[in-house]
């Protein structure tokens, strides 16, 4: 039997990123309004500016660069400011601990595919620190032979990096910025790197525009994780308030949706275990 490759997106494909991150972020902001004496909308605008600076809506410790924080604690080191903000950071972490979880059946499905000899790699546009921490924390890193991330400003703004675990040597491959989704070249590069033919490759993702259109154009088998689109729209509306997207990014997204409005996946799944049926064919 020919070797098969599964390339899987991470956020809202393996776990509900939109819900857990929004819940955690909102809890942190609630604490900050009390600590800093600043209203929520002002804080959200400040977060958005920092996120746009780094091109990332999930920038670790972006809170340390907020103007309101710098004004409240002038002259303190980053470590000292971090200590002052501990209630807010603790709130974020405690909510994340409760809400970050794999979609049902994910670990069992990965185990099954591994036993069947399927090569599994992750692909994400999240920065390395966040992406690797999540798959490590969720206990699924052992099923991945490699993690592909996008080149970016991967800064962590705190002197104590003990909470961040470095991935094993050779585990991570960083793709150039020009290979952002939905550029099909990145899939061709991954297949070449893994030594597996396009026809034996499957790409799993929750976005029709970014994941499925890209997979179709690359000539691999596309699998739409429809379950990953099922979250409270209010969570998405909140994320938009702190997004790193610029006006140019918004225009690009609008163009992508227009170009790929009729995209259709090769397969559609409504739960993660459905993946086994497809990969076992």
Can you give keywords for this protein?
Rossmann fold, 2 domains, 12 helices, 7 strands, 47% helix, 11% strand, globular
Which ranges are low-confidence, i.e. pLDDT below 50, for 5 or more consecutive residues? 156-162
CATH topology assignment of the largest domain: Rossmann fold
- End-to-end separation in angstroms reads 11 Å
| Count of all domains | 2
Q: Based on CA inertia axes, which overall geometry fits?
A: globular
What summary fits the major beta sheet?
Answer: 7 strands, parallel
SSE pattern: EHHHHHHEHEEHEHEHHEH
Per CATH, the superfamily of the largest domain is: HAD superfamily/HAD-like
Q: Identify the CATH class of the largest domain.
A: Alpha Beta
Which CATH-level-2 architecture of the largest domain?
Answer: 3-Layer(aba) Sandwich
Give the integer mean of the pLDDT values: 90
- Find the structural class using helix and strand composition: alpha/beta
Strand content: 5-15%
Kindly state the number of beta strands. 7
What spatial order of strands do you see in the largest sheet?
A: 4-3-2-1-5-6-7
The amount of helix comes to 40-55%
Spatial extent as radius of gyration = 20 Å
Q: How many distinct helices? A: 12
